User: What shape does this take?
Amino acid sequence: MSSPVVELPEAQLRPLLAAYDASVRTRRLHTLVVLACIVAAMALASVSAEVSPARLIENIGRFPSYIIRLFQLESGRPAWTDLAEWFWGLPRWLRLLGETLLMAYVGTLLGAVGAFGLSFLAAANVGPSRWLRFAVRRVCELCRTVPLLVFALLFVIAFGLGPMAGVLAVVIHTLGALVKQFAEVVENIDMKPVEGVSSTGAPWHVAMRYGALPQVMSNFVSYTLLRFEINVRESAVMGFVGAGGIGQDLIEAIRKFYYTDVSAILLLILVTVAIIDTLTSRVRHQLIGREERR
Amino acid sequence: MPRRPAIDLVAIRDRHPQHFTRFDRRRLLALLTGGAAFALLLFGMAQLGFFGGTLISGSLRLVEIVGLMLPPDPGSWAHARTFGVALLETVAIAFLGTLSAAVLALPLALLAARNVTAQRVVRFLSRRSLDTIRSVDILVWALIWINVVGLGPFAGALAIMTADVGSFGKLFSEAMEAADRKPVEGIVSTGGSHALAIRFGILPEIFPVLASQVLYYFESNTRSASIIGIVGAGGIGLHLAEAIRTLELQQTSFIIVLILIAVALIDFVSSQLRFAMIGRRGATA
Assistant: This one.
């Protein structure tokens, strides 16, 4: 089925076309102004960040050659032809990788337990006191805005070099991030079960245990697993400032130009992170599925 | 008042035995998982040196250190100016890195999006390379770029750019895949080419989403940019690490406060811009 296209008479068409052109023109102008602002800001930022395209073009060849050298043994052969030499430090690296995972695990769990308690205080709908809520929220904001490595640097002074400083930094950061997410979950619950439990004369903590907790648990676990993934990545670089884990060996290898060591350690980290991501995302999807079935 | 019917507990128990067992399978499983998690926690804490006494002495030292950090004080006017300039440099690094990453990520995302690139092999390769880029930490990228262009903020901006190309590529391609199919079909039905369909069918729809993601990353990159100085890639991190290592604790807290203010400001501005854009989009749609 087709219908003929009706063309408007010239007299009617002209003003319509003019209006269309005008509106396109103003939109174009608008875009141009925004673009000009961005370009100006980039120019300013380039001066401040000492950007020099000349230096980049002159040395850009070093980037691929660096990547190639990462996979080239001393003898000049590609690294994968001699796995024993490539992964010569495997026992030590695996031990450090295990330490990294433990750091992430302990840090995440301790942080999550703390956040679990605090989130009920920080949630607007069930929190027992306004002032407490305000205080908890501000402290947690501080904990998650200061970068993790800064905490690690400070804790290294207090607790000495080693994984404990790293774990505590992870705990603080996890606490700050999870309290916010947990509190949002608690704020979205259905209040009726809580009211029902309270109406029987139960105290606050009992109302939370039987009214709120069953509604939030799967979300809490899901957020904690997500945070664990993040913390594994963060723990892997904690050694850059001496706070334990495999990062120490990684930065040493980079600084001393042990090219194949760098690629071996990076590969180990990448594989570990990928495995953990797959496992946790499977568990999370199961949890979400259970939530939707309810 | 009606009499309550007598409850025959025994009969109910016989009919629903599963509700009367103290430890049914699910509960037992939960208890076992919890016990295992707790055991691993204790093992981990022992391995990482939590029970050696350092925890207590260290905590006492930490309290002392926090006491010495207050009030924040740059020490001298010259120091304050140095830190201010370094902070601007940090913001510049984050800005340049984020924006150039967005520009580079757009074509890559086109290659990785299912509804744009029909070629399976191209899509697979571009996705895997984006994943690999993303899983390498920003500090490692910074160290690699330092080898290429030398110490300084330029290496930092390049590191943020590299790391973000991975993230943006993934986010952008997901946004493209979520885009409405109808505008594309409309353009194709008038005889428009594939390129035209992408330009006028997909890009206008996803642009506000992309822009809001870029703005969001600008804020988080400011935080990243403030630590890449620790490995020598410019910005305020260098001064921060130095202040901590030389135990200039009041300067340390001054720098931390500066970073917090900068992040809060950028957060505010970017969320205003984001709302403005989403609002504008809502008005036209």
Remarks:
- Confidence is low (pLDDT under 50) at residues 281-285 of chain B.
